[in-house]
Design goal:
single chain; alpha+beta; FAD/NAD(P)-binding domain; D-Amino Acid Oxidase, Chain A, domain 2; 2 domains; 9-stranded mixed β-sheet; 8-stranded mixed β-sheet; about 30% helix; elongated
Length: about 375
């Protein structure tokens, strides 16, 4: 049996970030059921940081993560993790009132967000169909994210701090003793005082295996694809386009490696699985985008899908289980895992080691109760 202080289940962005933060406080082992970390959700992200997305708690976690991604610690990465990318929300006439109502709330946290006239929206993205957008909001300082570099930076930093990642290590059994947990994989047994459940879409599966009450996690499929850029638009002009997102999240698209990445922004409930794209969702996205723009999407270069896992209030679940001593939840990051990664890792590590939140998040008005698993756990039969 191999022993450690902190045993992390899952090496996606959630597990990697908390492992990185816990490594200075004791020996860390991360167990990953797949052959490659980040296979399911982390590696299938839209790769954008926006401070105008999610509820107020998500937005605060994003604000607290941004400084880390823009100025990572020495040795974390050899390349920039971010690049400038404006973000433009557009609304049809029938959506206008709804988007207008969100502007004040958005500006409370991000004062640079502003309304733009339709004429300016068309200047920002020449593919918008004339007359489609009746109202728009611009976030001028959103960011493109290098998801692979961010994820690998956390894993590299973990190893540099003495931590270990074990792949092909599916957890099959738990046993709790007075002082620690024994966790079994097909090939090995591990003992740890603290187990961190960062298993993404499988967090409720792992929780129930450990004897904890479920948190009501629902994995939801998100489809995406890439296609060629439009004819007649130079690579330089295309690269300068903002992310375009429908105000009701019916679609989005953005420049990506000389072409376009697009999605219908679907949220189809699924069981935890290695999810694949649905042709219908791709067709829906193409139809919506072609109605909103002059883009003609005749060929798909690549398509994929990922799972974004939510609890009912769409707020992450971060905290020690109230009934299973030493069992810590880090679940329900939805589609916000990359843009909240540093704050989530620091929050989880601080709650485990110090039993309180990092000071910057406390200063933003966040409390442990906002994230605690007990708020969403089902009652026992």
């Amino acid at each position: 049996m191999e022993s450690c202080d902190f045993l992390i289940i899952g090496a996606g962005i959630a597990g990697a970030s908390v492992a990185f933060e816990l490594a200075p406080h004791g020996r860390v082992i991360v167990l990953e059921r797949e052959a490659v970390p980040g296979h399911h959700s982390t590696g299938r992200s839209a790769a954008v940081l926006t401070q105008n997305y999610g509820n107020s708690i998500i937005r605060r976690l994003t604000l607290a993560t941004r400084p880390f991604l823009e100025h990572p610690p020495d040795g974390f990465t050899e390349y920039p993790l971010t690049a400038p990318r404006q973000m433009l929300w557009i609304a049809r006439e029938d959506q206008k009132a709804g988007l207008e109502a969100t502007l004040g709330e958005a500006q409370r946290l991000v004062p640079t967000i502003r309304a733009v006239e339709p004429a300016e929206a068309y200047t920002l993205c020449s593919a918008l169909r004339s007359g489609y957008a009746a109202y728009a909001i611009l976030e001028p300082h959103a960011l493109d994210l290098d998801v692979h570099a961010i994820h690998q930076g956390f894993l590299r930093g973990l190893r540099n701090r003495g931590g270990t990642v074990v792949t092909n290590a599916e957890v099959v059994r738990f046993q709790q003793t007075d002082a620690s947990w024994e966790v079994h994989t097909p090939d090995q047994q591990y003992a740890a005082a603290v187990v961190v459940n960062a298993a993404g879409a499988w967090c409720d599966v792992i929780g129930q295996l450990a004897g904890a009450r479920p948190v009501g996690l629902v994995p939801k499929r998100r489809t995406a694809f890439t296609c060629h850029g439009p004819a007649g638009v130079s690579p330089e002009e295309l690269a300068a386009w903002p992310v375009i997102i429908d105000s009701d999240e019916e679609f989005y698209f953005k420049p990506e490696s000389g072409g376009i990445l697009a999605s219908p922004a679907d949220e189809t409930p699924m069981e935890p699985c290695d999810v694949f794209p649905d042709d219908y969702d791709v067709a829906v996205a193409i139809d919506r985008i072609q109605k909103a723009t002059t883009l003609s999407i005749a060929h798909i270069n690549r398509r994929w899908a990922g799972l974004r896992s939510f609890v009912p209030d769409k707020t992450p679940v971060v905290g020690m289980d109230s009934e299973c001593a030493g069992f810590f939840w880090l679940a329900g990051q939805g589609g916000y895992g990359i843009q909240t990664s540093s704050a989530m890792g620091r929050t989880a590590a601080s709650l485990i080691v110090n039993q309180h939140l990092p000071q910057d998040l406390t200063d933003m008005g966040l409390t442990p109760e906002d994230l605690a698993p007990i708020r969403v756990q089902a009652e026992r039969d």
